[in-house]
Amino acid sequence: MTAAVAAASSAPARLGRVGRTALLLALALFVSIVANLRLGAVPIEWRDLLALIGIGEGDPGALTVLTGIRLPRLLAALAVGATLGVSGAALQALFRNPLAEPGLLGVSTGAALGAAIWFVFGAGLFAGLASLDLLRPFILPLLSFAGALASVALVLWLGRSGGPGATVLMLLVGIGVNAIGAALIGLATYISTDTEMRALSMWMLGSFAQTEWAVLAPALLLIALATTALIRTHRALDLLALGEAPARHLGIDTDRLRLKLGLLTAVAVGAAVSLSGVIGFVGLVVPHMLRMAVGPAHRALLPLCAMGGAALLATADLAARLVALPAEAPVGVIMALVGAPVFLSMLIRTRRAWL
Amino acid sequence: MILSVENLCVTRGGGTLLDRLSLSLEPGSITVLAGPNGAGKSTLLETLAGDLPPTAGQIRLDGQRITDLSLPRRAELRTMLRQQSLIAFDFAVTEVVAMGLHPHGISADSPHGRALIAEALADMDLSAFADRSATRLSGGEGQRVHIARSLVQLRAGEQRSLLLLDEPTTGLDYRHQLALLQVLKAEAQAGATIIASLHDLPLACRLATRLLLLARGTLLADVPPEQLDPALVADVYAIDPAEAALLLGLGRSPLPLRLAAE
Predict the structure, then answer these.
(1) What is the C-alpha separation between A122 and A131, in angstroms, rounded?
(2) Which residue ranges make up each domain of chain B?
(3) Which positions, given as ranges, span the membrane (chain A) (predicted)?
(4) Please, which residues have CB within 8 angstroms of residue A319's CB and are 6 or more apart in sequence?
(5) Is the Cβ pair A96, B88 closer than 8 Å?
(6) Chain A residues in contact with B118 (beta carbon < 8 A)
(7) CATH number for the domain harbouring residue A163
(8) What average pLDDT score do residues A312-331 get?
(9) Chain B: nearest CA to A246, how far in angstroms?
(10) What is the CATH number assigned to the segment(s) B3-228?
(11) I need a labelling partner for B155 at 20 to 30 A (CA). Which of A103, A139, A210, B87 fits?
(12) Is residue A136 pLDDT above 50, yes or no?
């Protein structure tokens, strides 16, 4: 719709902006991917990269590092970044507020609660399962995914209503559910041992250090399906900007759309969080910046948010790996260090509108 | 499109918002709803649009009950413009107007879609604003954007259908009130069934083929505009008959016109 309207009159200008931004993001994405694969504790040569895509021959040791460590980690960072970017934009459209993000629905808190259960009670609760080496890598992702889905389901169920205030109600219920989750995490932390607490707090800071193919593959599938479905709602998201009643007058079933957006973001972000732990600000910063660059129409905005989120998080993860070699920093901390000041500058710039 | 309303009642929280209303509206008619604040004008429009389920009674569009129609089908058959439309995020004026095409599955960059958008922009005197952000307009300019969006929704249908407008002149200056008047008359001529609520009675009389006066959810009068007399207006609004005559432009000003004498 966007590009279409742009063509109608407003513009070569806007169409040109979309094209330029897409090109710029594609370039950033490419550079980030290559840098992620080449740079790190083990040096990777160009010919090893070429060998990876089937051209010539590379060093076998380098190829093992690439396929076993760098590639899955890179894919995870790209997928999580894309998910957070798209989900953030979709939820901002739903709440008609540029400050909304997946965390509002309790996705992150629910996932963190699932992780807390594993880190603190895992040894006792899942002793039987954990002794099976085959299942072990799946327990933490499944628990955090279940936690994310459960808390979103609770928000959607408590916040369900057909009335005009349904979205605001959902937001308020989200705050309540988040508070309960945070309290339970606090409780788990309080009764945990030092080692358990350290494992949990590392996970809460977000990291791709533990990415394995076995966990990555199903998560990528869920993310791909849910993100594509989110992008396909672009037209309805545009109409929501008019408000729920006017969107209904244009034929959008807003009750169903609200449910659909809640479930899709829960699945996508739940899968993402199960890979990386909690990473904030991508869902907030990426849609905001891109909306300023190409305008709010979602047909262009959502795919660009996927590209932008992927490029940003892959770059942040590269920084996390390189900043303190041979150790590494949690990528969630890097994102927050960059994201939080941007978030504050957004608030300062829109301050007048709030007062 | 024939709109028929039988014995419509809407009650909410124990209060009666609409009390046993019956109407039948023909294509080409322009019906204006007037009445004091809280008379039930917006409630009636929302119920006719299918937003509020009636407590009792029926609303039929060409014989079909509106509540039996799916939301996308309703959006093809009726256009509704609410009071005080807003827009989140800075969509361009053209983009907002193009949203009216959505129910009809017409692309904004098809020749047909582009023509509809351009026509509605011109009708509402917005051609110069097409590329501006819709969030950075004055109240009246914003209202014109949403009127243009409604015109697109109405005109994009296979035939002119039902147009519901809740106080469409809010914020409009005289020039654009008159422009709206003309556009609505042309749409009625083209076969639309139009219902609008208005507070300005002289304007209502110029626009309407039929006036409905509501108070406290009850239909007090259903008259052609020529028959609107000061006694009726005074009764509906609970005001002095002399003031009512003044409002209708029939009386003499009680204020001494000193300036004119000088």
Answers:
(1) 11
(2) 3-228
(3) 22-39, 74-95, 107-126, 138-159, 165-192, 213-231, 263-288, 300-323, 329-348
(4) A329, A331, A334
(5) yes
(6) 8-9
(7) 1.10.3470.10
(8) 88
(9) 8
(10) 3.40.50.300
(11) B87
(12) yes
